[in-house]
Write a structure and sequence with these properties.
single chain, 126 residues, alpha+beta, 18% strand, elongated
Length: 126
């Protein structure tokens, strides 16, 4: 939208230096408000950056204490695999194979396949 004529006249007067004292006072007030606004925004952004840097330092310090090796579990671990057979029958064998071959840090485990099916499925016999 185009500015109205009084607004345009005020802008032209201000650019020409013909503004009166009241307009100059309002400009000073407006400039002061914008300065306060910018200072508040700058302070909040600085606080955000400082908190992110601080949190990153704390996280890095916490991660240094952890070992990259997984602890071995010597006690019996029970693994429950819930499934609904008509929908998940194609992936049951893959899931069980993954559990049995990839969990290397567990000494002894029991795998319980818990399923619900409305009718007998061929996957039940595997």
């Amino acid at each position: 939208p185009r500015p109205t004529q009084p607004v345009m006249d005020g802008i032209i007067d201000w650019l020409d230096g013909n503004s009166d004292a009241a307009a100059a006072d309002s400009d000073v007030q407006l400039t002061t408000l914008w300065t306060v606004f910018y200072v508040v925004i700058l302070c909040s952004l600085t606080a955000q950056v400082a908190s992110i840097v601080g949190l990153a330092k704390v996280a890095a310090r916490m991660c240094r204490g952890f070992s990259r090796q997984t602890a071995r579990v010597d006690s019996l671990v029970a693994i429950v695999v819930p499934c609904y057979l008509p929908n998940e029958a194609p992936i049951i064998a893959q899931t069980l194979k993954h559990i049995l071959t990839k969990l290397e840090h567990v000494a002894e485990m029991e795998v319980h396949l818990v399923y619900n099916t409305p009718r007998p499925m061929p996957a039940e016999e595997e």
